[in-house]
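RECORD TYPE: inverse folding
INPUT: structure tokens
STRUCTURE:
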């Protein structure tokens, strides 16, 4: 029997009253991603769905960093060998980004410290990104001859536009959380000692909301990046049709008319 002590688990997952908190847990290496962590990350994300009682997810990091991207120690044996980075993206990073963006619950990110390389992409793939005032975002890829990956070349221009995406990616400079908020890269930055408490309050609230409706909002907003206005109107028509069939819609209207607070089940 293998007994895992908490400090040996690369990912911690805690679910309380529909709110899941996923913590990247290799604090001594700024939660950089190694093989064990990919395995545990993917397995934890499989547990996040309304069917399994989860109605909101918070992703954060243990210790002083959020995530420093790929664990470069796993690349220490390169010594002239040509690594297959495409395979690494296909097997590990891309499935994680796809999964996070396709989850049928709101995903909040509490960026507690530096988010570098793929660590930045993971944070930016979440639906609402909060960051501690002392946190920063670094497109570290260019410093080691790589391109922003894990969605970086899509997420950055979509969020901050071409000029800023290129500046960040080609220079690899540290972007402060305050600047990230000012540029619209993230939703909000907060005082360090308030970050987790405030994100938890928002997460608990979201875990009581009409989960199905929220997941449809995510799909609609997601669709807008590739749709024309006309296609988007069709998508809204279809998704609103689904939203209108939920019991939470019935409850929302009934509660409004009764002048009481609604009790949503997520369905
Ligand atoms: C680390 C790391 C790290 C191991 C800090 N690895 N130990 C995808 C496809 C396939 C392959 C390649 O990559 C990718 C995606 C990517 O993510 S590529 C980008 C990889 N990440 C980086 O290049 C960032 C490297 N780290 C840094 O530049 C700095 O550590 C930052 C700016 C993030 C933080 O700097 P400091 O706050 O000064 O912290 P530190 O450098 O002192 O780090 C603390 C410890 O964490 C230290 O260990 P030590 O044993 O010396 O105390 C670092 O070695 C370790 N660490 N990042 N990525």
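DESIGNED SEQUENCE:
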């Amino acid at each position: 029997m293998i007994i895992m002590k908490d400090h040996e688990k690369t990912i911690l997952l805690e679910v309380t009253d529909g709110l899941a908190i996923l913590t990247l847990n290799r604090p001594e290496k700024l939660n950089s991603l190694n093989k064990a962590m990919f395995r545990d990350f993917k397995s934890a994300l499989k547990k996040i769905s309304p069917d399994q009682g989860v109605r909101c997810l918070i992703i954060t990091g243990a210790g002083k960093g959020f995530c420093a991207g790929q664990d470069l120690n796993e690349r220490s044996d390169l010594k002239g060998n040509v690594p297959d980075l495409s395979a690494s993206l296909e097997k590990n990073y891309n499935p994680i980004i796809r999964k996070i963006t396709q989850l049928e619950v709101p995903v909040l990110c509490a960026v507690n410290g530096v988010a570098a390389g793929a660590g930045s992409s993971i944070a930016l793939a979440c639906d609402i990104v909060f960051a501690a005032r002392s946190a920063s975002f670094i497109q570290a890829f260019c410093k080691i001859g790589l391109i922003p990956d894990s969605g970086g070349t899509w997420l950055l221009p979509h969020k901050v536009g071409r000029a800023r995406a290129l500046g960040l990616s080609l220079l690899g400079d540290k972007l402060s959380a305050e600047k990230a908020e000012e540029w619209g890269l993230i939703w909000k930055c907060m005082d360090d000692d308030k970050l987790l408490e405030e994100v938890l309050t928002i997460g608990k609230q979201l875990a009581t909301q009409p989960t199905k409706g929220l997941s449809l909002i995510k799909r609609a907003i997601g669709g807008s990046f590739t749709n024309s206005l006309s296609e988007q109107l069709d998508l809204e028509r279809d998704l609103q049709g689904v939203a209108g069939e939920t019991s939470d819609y019935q409850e929302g209207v009934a509660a409004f008319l009764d002048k009481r607070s609604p009790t949503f089940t997520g369905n």
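NOTES: The beta strands are 11-16, 19-24, 56-61, 107-111, 115-116, 128-132, 136-138, 174-176, 188-190.
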